[in-house]
Amino acid sequence: MSARRLHVLQEAGAPLGRRQFLRTAAGGAALATLGACGAEDFLRRNYRELSRKDLDGIVARLEKRYSEQYGKKVRVGTEGPMERVDFAYGLDLSRCIGCRRCVYACVKENNPSRQNPQIHWIKVLEMDKARGVDLVHANAYYEAELVPRPGHFYMPVQCQQCRHPPCTKVCPVKATWKEPDGIVVVDYDWCIGCRCCTAACPYGARKFNWAEPALPKEEMNPNTHYLGNRPRMKGVVEKCTFCIQRVRNGRYPACVEICPVGARKFGNLLDETSEIRRVMETKRVFVFKEELATEPQFYYFYAT
Amino acid sequence: MRRSLDPALAALVALAWGGAAAATEPGQAGAPADRGQPGAPSTAAKAAEPSPGEIQAEPPPFSEGIFPCSQCHDKAGDPARRELAFHDEVQSVFNHDSTNRWCLDCHDNQMRDVLRLASGAHVPFTESYRLCGQCHGDKYRDWRAGVHGKRVGMWNGQKTYYLCVNCHNPHSPRFKPVKPEPRPARPEEMKR
């Protein structure tokens, strides 16, 4: 499956990476050596330059490959952004109890590597009430018999879907970009694994597959999106997409639906009747690291 | 379904590469509505159905054998406020302004199978939020708008909203602490 990847460490006998291939290929003669890999996969364009016909072909091949690999019918969606939709997320810090249900609902939905590397798109920070939002004293590794622990509050952090995303600016190959509905996405087949975006993100939201992802067949969610939760490969960066495979079909993200205290809100900023608009208009709202002018579309608020 | 999305994707590609100016044509604007999905995001569709469907969640079940209350309380009881010698399961946990309130502030003395507002009006158990809203008006307004409480389903269409009593025990409404899920692995704990 990693045939098209530029491997972090090129194993002996592994198929050539796309760039390496392009460097060494001597015209059409080399195409014959590709065999089952499929020349189209090597020579395909950036996702945003693909024609519908090309994309349909790529998706069909991916669905076939994933279905065989995971032993179930896998769907790879390519739903585009909806007209007149600008997504925003609200998280009520006065309600969050730090139970981490969202973290594992996200893992279940989005097919990240389970361990070595363990990838979580949501990180819940425990902070002292006396200090307020203070990252120096935040602890993501808290262990407790019961939460919330007295004297603490909890701040889940995930991709903030910035309006001025530093991560997309630094990508040298334009493998990550912001969609018109606000979601920052990654084309895993175009990512070269340089991790510039990971370094540029002020929120620690981007995760890197340091090794071949470990995703057990029985835990694989077969409802995927090309730019979201389809299985990843070693050497690519991934991040929260607001559950693009759900929200582009009208559903709430998985973390919203699991939250046992109703702290998570999601909706269309351009719809004046949406709950997120109500939050923006009536609550005390802030964005994380406002001073960096990233202008997140992820808003923290206090309902009480 | 992918095929029917052609125009939407074309719009995206055009937006990204052709510049925003030429991207939005009338035909493309209507495209998502053609999908025939419940949450189809079209302004036209929205005008036709002004209120997206909202479904009330099932209230949680009563304790075994407790409802209808009238099977025991067949007539009005003593209205004097007191500690009850029965209903220990409620009395033992009751913590909802317990210094000032008791059973008959919410339960009706004459008609035991319904709740009672301060006005004396009767409210079925399925609409208990009206009772809660008498005191918690701010939460009630937020809940109506979807800011307090939880909704599941479609962000742009049919959704199920949870009632006060789906999350809060009306006799002891404060959330109880829960066991958190396991902490993430520290970087040094991950093998290469």
Question: Main traits of this protein?
Answer:
heterodimer; A: 304 residues; alpha+beta; 4-stranded mixed β-sheet; two-stranded parallel ribbon; 15% strand; globular; B: 192 residues; 24% helix; 7% strand
Can you walk me through this structure?
The complex is a heterodimer of chains A (304) and B (192). Chain A is of the alpha+beta class and 304 residues long. Chain A is 25% helix and 15% strand. Chain A has helices spanning 18-24, 28-34, 39-43, 52-70, 101-110, 166-170, 196-200, 244-247, 254-258, 275-282, and strands at 75-77, 87-92, 123-128, 152-157, 176-178, 184-186, 207-208, 223-225, 237-238, 264-268, 284-286, 298-302. Chain A is globular and about 60 Å long. Residues 9-13 and 26-36 of chain A have low confidence and may be disordered. Chain B has 192 residues and is of the alpha+beta class. In chain B, 24% of the residues lie in helices and 7% in strands. In chain B, the strands form 2 sheets. Chain B has a 3-stranded mixed sheet with strand order 1-5-4, with no helix packed on it. In chain B, a hairpin with a 5-residue loop joins strand 4 and strand 5 (159-161). The two termini of chain B are 41 Å apart. Mean pLDDT of chain B is 77; it is low at 1-51.
Sequence of secondary-structure elements of chain A: HHHHEEHEEHEEHEEEHHEHEE
Number of strands of chain A: 12
**Beta fraction of chain B:** 5-15%
Helical stretch tally of chain A: 10
Q: Cα distance, first to last residue of chain A?
A: 50 Å
Please give the share of residues in helix of chain B.
10-25%
Counting DSSP H or I runs of 4 or more residues, the number of helices of chain B is: 7
- Give, in order, the helices and strands of chain B: HHHEHEEHHEEH
- Indicate the radius of gyration of chain A in whole angstroms: 20 Å
The shape of chain A, in one word, is globular
